[in-house]
Sequence to fold (550 residues):
Amino acid sequence: MSEFFAMGGRGFYVWMSYGVTALFMVVEVIAVARSKKTVLKRLARMVRAEARGNS
Amino acid sequence: MAFKNSIAWYYFSSPKNFYPLAGRLIPWFWGLSVILLVVGLYMSFFVAPTDYKQGESYRIIFIHVPAAWMSMLIYLVMAVYAIIGLAWKLRMAEMMASALAPTGAMFTFLALWTGAFWGKPTWGTYWVWDARLTSELILLFLYIGYISLQSAIDDPRRAARASALLAIVGVINLPVIYWSVKWWNTLHQGASVSPTMEPKMASVMVTAMLVMTFAFWMYTIAVVLMRVRRTVLERESQTSWVKALVGDRVENSSAGEKQ
Amino acid sequence: MSKINGAGEVNQSSLFAAWRAMVVRDLTLAMRRRADVLTTLFFFIIVVSLFPLGVSPEMAVLREIAPGVIWVAALLASMLSLGRLFSDDYQDGTLEQMLLLPQPLSVLVLAKVLAHWLVSGVPLVLLSPLLGMQLGLGGDAIMLMMLTLLLGTPVLSLIGSVGAALTLGVRGGGVLVSLLVLPLYIPVLIFGTGAVDAATSGMAFEGHLSLLGAFFVLAALLTPLATAAALRISVE
Fold:
């Protein structure tokens, strides 16, 4: 197992590449999902405010 | 993309109809992407043999090359959407173009980053001014210009159209830039870094690279559809269908709170 | 050309008259604000003069980097002057009038770019021998560099006009335009400096010049259309 992670002494380079790639991809998905949620929340507030204004 | 039927294409070019369709498609693309990633990673780490010259660090090319391919493909697709958006005044195409840019910039950066970490153990430096890396760097600049222009303009309609025009200008220039850089590189006898190492590169490696590319591709579609759904909500916030959609959610959530 | 014939009421002579009127108008306006032109020129001189201080006063070193330094400084100087291309007309409403003219907008854009190049590009070309001498370039190399600048600076103005049109009235437009335009300047930079480098090392340089000429023709044909489209997007 540790031999696998050592990558024949090149572990640092391999895992810096794969790690940063994975990190960026995960962070991008989370950021997009969160920003969509924020937009939805803001719209919901607007709809509620409008509903209150009408009643 | 998948709609060969022109009526369906027209139908889904309206944000109102596109939004639910994208919502239904996203899980499928996630599924495909995860499956391909698992297969691709397994192949790149366990199936592909160790390169006798470069050792284990050559395994970086299984993400470096797909990332570089995706960075170029995304710019191309972005420009196609930009042309469609400007020529037929399709808002959905404009939004798709702008949703692609951040992911394209990310893959461009990742191609540079993994290229650096591949180059260090292989050639002893993190960076060389080779034609491919330099072009990739310029591509990153083009993405940054596109994103900055879009975020600097407040009016979303103008932002979308101005950046679409910039994408078209960029895509016309890209071949000229690439070719000039290549010429410049040969003139100065700079290091030529070629990721397609051996001519008889084992077919297992090519397969692994292709699988990883498709995994990234499916990932891109999924994340871009997510982003474009957000943009649709933002830009169509004054329309009745978005209000109805948000209204349903509000009712559902408040009903849930009362129970 | 088909566009002109298609417009009907716009005949050839009125088109040329409008074109010339636009060039003369922009030149007159530029002459009234000579300080702006001089600022760009001094910027060019100062940037080039910084290199001996920053790199080395050794003439051999300077001669080596001279074409690149002068070209990059010219790139930056011509980019700095892009802000003036449309912004005054945009602010006082002249641009909106221009969009309504019967003459095709791209032709008027070409006139404006020509005027802009005459006041911002030509002075750079004329001044470059002085800077070339400062950096130790020989007579032939200086002549060749002037020639590449003469062919290259109009391309810079043409490509720059697209960026200037896209960033009209945008906050932070000055810095933004550099992000948009500088990557697109790269081929001109490569072949402009490449010609001088080739000549100093005794190789053929005619190919570079023809390529710069080709860039110029292509840019003159295509960028006015893009700039006109960008102006319409920005003013709408």
